[in-house]
Specification:
This protein has 150 residues and is an all-alpha fold. The protein has one domain (28-146). It has seven helices and no strands. The longest helix has 31 residues, at 18-48. It is globular. 29% of the residues are buried.
């Protein structure tokens, strides 16, 4: 047991749970990445069938030409979500998704005037993706299988 593991074990209210926490650490992180990626892909699947369908909405946010940005939005959500879920190019895919979600925070909070309640879900999703921008994928990922991370 390393010094960090020993210190962590001693700081737990129930030290006997340290083994459980240690053994599930990677599994919990993988589960979060897969669920976040799949949720983003499912959300994007509605857009990928009509990748130019959000042109008017993105232009209302100041993104011109709308057809281009609508296509980028559709691909970022759908294909980026799949990449995050499988753990391939995890950091750039999570970064692109995080940018999309920060724009939706602006859209709901400022443009739509919904404030925090309207932007809450986007803030949470952006924070989850920020975690994977910084952390990358773990040992349960395609990145780990090929031995390379961005």
């Amino acid at each position: 047991m390393s010094i960090n593991e020993s210190t962590e074990r001693n700081s737990l209210i129930i030290p006997a749970l340290s083994g459980l926490y240690s053994s599930l650490h990677t599994t919990a992180e993988t589960l979060l990445r897969v669920v976040a990626g799949l949720a983003l892909a499912v959300h994007g699947s509605q857009k990928i069938v009509n990748p130019f369908g959000a042109a008017g909405m993105v232009e209302s946010l100041g993104f011109y030409p709308g057809e281009f940005w609508s296509f980028v939005l559709s691909c970022t959500e759908f294909f980026g979500g799949i990449l995050i879920a499988i753990g391939l190019l995890t950091r750039p895919a999570a970064f692109a998704g995080m940018i999309v979600l920060l724009v939706t925070v602006w859209f709901h909070w400022i443009t739509q005037g919904q404030g925090y309640p309207g932007a809450e879900k986007s803030i949470l999703w952006a924070a989850i993706l920020f975690f994977f921008v910084i952390r990358g994928a773990n040992s349960h990922s395609v990145d780990a299988r090929i031995g390379r991370q961005f």
